[in-house]
Specification:
Radius of gyration: 23 Å
Strand content: under 5%
Distance between the termini: 57 Å
Helix content: 55-70%
Order of helices and strands: HHHHHHHHHHHH
Shape: elongated
Structural class: mainly alpha
Largest sheet: none
Length: 250
């Protein structure tokens, strides 16, 4: 029989014999985790939620079997691990949260890893911190590590900029020199068409105008845009577009 539980829905009371049988079956499946295929691990992670709620499986038991996946080299396996710990977000020790954040930050900076894996790591940091406030604290303590670097692929740079905006929006504070994060994208000044780095920078500036309108003067956004025009007049259309779309928010 296939059934699922809505968030907040009370699990049904099952006969004790059925509960014992199901618990033994889940235990056997978990015991075979080390020798299971990658897709079996992913399949199990995605379907554990129901059994955890119905059978009241303890966090430490389930986590023990999935914890090796934290250091998996495949994004799908690391994702399986993150799916499982999300099921126990309020029971996970701080040391585990720290290990997860350390691993994800290491991935974001590892140039030997595929760019899409690094981009996923940034996404996962945001998702985990949005789910648990203490995890956001760990992210906030290392927020400078999210600044884009020269050698980062363009997609990763934009993802890091979005992560920075998320962090400062949540923390309700912005450093006065916030716009220095754009230094790794300085090539946009020499491309007049709204593509590539040019598009990334002006999307970022527009989000600042929208999200942080009261801080515009302190951040010297207008001064930054004027300086851009003085040195690169061909950027006028993009500067005007930001001004028009954010005009009613200052």
């Amino acid at each position: 029989v296939h059934f699922d539980l809505a968030p907040g829905q009370t699990p049904p009371r099952l006969p004790r014999k059925l509960v014992r049988t199901m618990t033994r079956s889940i235990s056997l499946v978990l015991e075979t985790m080390p020798t299971s295929s990658s897709w079996t691990k992913i399949f199990l992670a995605e379907r554990l939620s129901l059994f955890i709620r119905v059978l009241a499986l303890p966090c430490r038991v389930v986590f023990h079997h999935f914890s090796p996946l934290l250091y998996a080299s495949r994004p799908s396996l690391l994702h399986a691990f993150l799916v499982v710990i999300a099921l126990f977000s309020h029971e996970i020790d701080r040391s585990v949260s720290e290990a997860v954040v350390d691993r994800l930050f290491a991935l974001t900076q590892d140039t030997s890893v595929e760019a899409r894996f690094r981009l996923l790591a940034v996404n996962w940091l945001i998702a985990l911190s949005a789910k648990k406030r203490s995890t956001f604290g760990l992210l906030w303590d290392r927020v400078q590590e999210l600044c884009p670097r020269w050698h980062d692929p363009l997609d990763l740079k934009e993802m890091k900029l979005q992560a920075l905006l998320y962090c400062f929006k949540e923390a309700k504070q912005l450093p006065r020199n916030f716009l220095v994060v754009l230094e790794s994208l300085s090539e946009f000044k020499y491309c007049c068409r709204p593509v590539g780095a040019h598009a990334v920078v002006f999307r970022f500036l527009l989000r600042i105008v929208i999200y942080f309108a009261p801080d515009m003067d302190r951040l010297e956004v207008c001064q930054h845009l004027c300086d851009l025009l003085r040195s690169h007049p061909k950027l006028l259309p993009s500067v005007l577009a930001v001004e028009r779309r954010g005009g009613g928010r200052g």
